[in-house]
Write a structure and sequence with these properties.
GPX_AS; Glutaredoxin; 160 residues; Glutathione_peroxidase
Length: 160
């Protein structure tokens, strides 16, 4: 059975990393953008990370420029923006293709596991996927879903 642990991704600093490094954690995977109406969600994502990281929770941010070019051109610009404006210190990854035929295999897997409302494609920035400690996709949340609305689901998975 495939899980998120089977995928390798590129960190925002350009290093290859296996998601198996997060084995045993509850993970929230989010496709992000720095210049989107939902960008303030970084604050809520960071708050969740700060509150639950010691219990085995992490947020993984995957910037994407596929929705009206709402992301900076360079990864170092993205990293700086997120740190300076929202204090982001959860793991961020290199700009990633999250939809279409050239989507990163991780995102093809995620959308195959949990279809969104009316479509399997990711429709916009800040789509969220909640992963259990076994690396299996539990829930998918719409871009408009504020991070604080995920807290009960996160706590349930952390308690397992």
């Amino acid at each position: 059975m495939t899980t998120v642990y089977d995928f390798e991704v590129t960190t925002i600093t350009g290093k290859q990393q296996s998601l198996s490094d997060y084995r045993g954690n509850v993970i929230l995977i989010v496709n992000t953008a720095s210049k989107c109406g939902f960008t303030p969600q970084f604050e809520g994502l960071q708050k969740l990370y700060d509150q639950y990281k010691d219990e085995g929770f992490t947020v993984l941010g995957f910037p994407s420029d596929q929705f009206m070019n709402q992301e900076f051109a360079e990864d170092d610009q993205i990293e700086e923006f997120c740190k300076l404006n929202y204090g982001v210190d959860f793991p961020m990854f290199s700009k990633t293709i999250v939809k279409g035929k050239n989507a990163h295999p991780l995102f093809k897997y995620l959308i195959n596991e949990k279809n969104g409302l009316l479509t399997s494609e990711i429709k916009w920035n800040f789509s969220k996927f909640l992963i259990n400690r076994d690396g299996v996709v539990e829930e998918r949340y719409a871009p408009a879903t504020n991070p604080d609305k995920l807290e009960d689901d996160i706590r349930k998975l952390l308690a397992k």
